[in-house]
Design a protein that fits this description.
single chain, about 350 residues, alpha/beta, Rossmann fold, about 15% strand, disordered N terminus, BD-FAE-like_dom, Alpha/beta hydrolase fold domain-containing protein, GDXG_lipolytic_enzyme, hydrolase activity, hydrolase
């Protein structure tokens, strides 16, 4: 039976709770104790709340209270520290509140501006998209790939950001695709759905009122990873489309090399193999990038998410390809929220990328 968690816009049991991950089993344990987090205490703790080698905090209200450091499993991280570095709930106590707010804003947009066109781009039941149209056509189009640890969230929850694009003369298309847990944990299968969605839009751009020469993509969190995978796709060989069919990509708070991800708790639901790790690590396929690239992150995100953004940027820069790195004083879900604000971190970055 299909889980209703993904479809109803809710989130997994630990999302937004104070929790820890059992290193040996990957089991997620929630803590009943509530935590009071003030702006002063958050700023005093620096970029996050994890007692990790990166932050070197002697004690934490959030993160790993009472943690005794174990053997290193990746760089200087022990297992518990690495697990926490790939779990945003250790760094954003109000994560669920932001998600609730964005869901409400997405509903409000549909109430005020009308429902998007619901279109099918493939044969799988989840291969659909929401298209929010701007008034004037042909128009540039921004294709959004949602996050949610490759399992949760959906196109409907992403609608809040559409209004900014519509008001600036661009279409906004939010992709749906199957949760990776319904694909046997195969990230390559999920990435193939995202690629099909982008290719379908490119081939049907004229009938959608979109300018085929102004197709842009963006994704947040696990969607930021899938966005980078799309940007490193060989569009000529796989789809018979121009190499530069995508003119620009906005990778928001994503992951770009999956080696540490594979060693973290996320391997409990991702069926990693050496081949999948290599194929789904965009940082290892930079030679295929043909679009201008913008990479963003929040300074209150986990140290690993920040490092991933910086390392990916440096790797792209080393090849001479156009890339910009932009950081903001935001938590993880707040970086997503900023996409709907023309003055926000990602809203401004998207408008600059599209030159609108």
């Amino acid at each position: 039976m299909r889980s209703t968690v993904h479809r109803k816009g809710n989130f997994d049991p630990f999302y937004g709770m104070i929790c820890s991950v059992t290193p040996q089993t990957g089991e997620i344990v929630t803590h009943a104790k509530s935590v009071s987090l003030t702006r002063r205490s958050a700023l005093g703790a620096g970029v996050g709340m994890l007692c990790s080698p990166v932050l070197a905090q002697p004690s934490c209200e959030l993160g790993l209270p009472g943690h005794v450091k174990g053997s290193a499993v990746w760089r200087d991280y022990d297992q518990a520290e690495l697990d926490a570095a790939y779990n945003q709930t250790f760094y954003q106590a109000h994560l669920d509140r932001v998600n609730d707010r964005l869901g409400a804003q997405s509903f409000d947009l549909r109430f005020r501006r009308g429902y998007p066109d619901r279109l099918t781009y493939g044969e799988h039941p989840d291969e659909k998209l929401d298209l929010y149209r701007t008034a004037v056509t042909p128009a540039p189009i921004f294709i959004f790939i949602h996050g949610g640890i490759w399992i949760h969230l959906d196109a409907a929850t992403s609608g809040f950001a559409a209004e900014m694009f519509m008001d600036h003369g661009a279409h906004f298309a939010a992709l749906d695709f199957a949760p990776v847990t319904e694909l046997g944990g195969d990230l390559a299968a999920q990435a193939a759905q995202v690629r099909r969605g982008i290719a379908w839009i490119a081939r049907n751009a004229a009938s959608l009122g979109a300018d085929p020469e102004r197709i842009y993509i963006g994704g947040h969190s696990s969607g930021g990873h899938l966005c980078a995978v799309a940007l490193t796709t060989d569009w000529v060989a796989e789809f018979g489309l121009p190499r530069d069919v995508i003119k620009g990509g906005l990778c928001m708070s994503g992951m770009y090399d999956l080696e540490p991800v594979r060693l973290s708790w996320r391997s409990s639901y991702l069926a990693f193999t050496d081949e999948m790790e290599a194929a789904m690590s965009p940082q290892r396929h930079i030679d295929r990038i043909a679009a201008s690239l913008t990479i963003t992150y929040g300074s209150y995100e986990t140290p690993e998410f920040q490092r991933q953004a910086k390392d990916f940027t440096a790797a792209v820069q080393a090849t001479g390809k156009p890339v910009a790195l932009i950081g903001g004083t935001l938590h993880h879900q707040e970086t997503w929220e900023s996409l709907g604000n023309p003055y926000g971190l990602n809203g401004r970055a998207a408008l600059d990328m599209m030159q609108i």
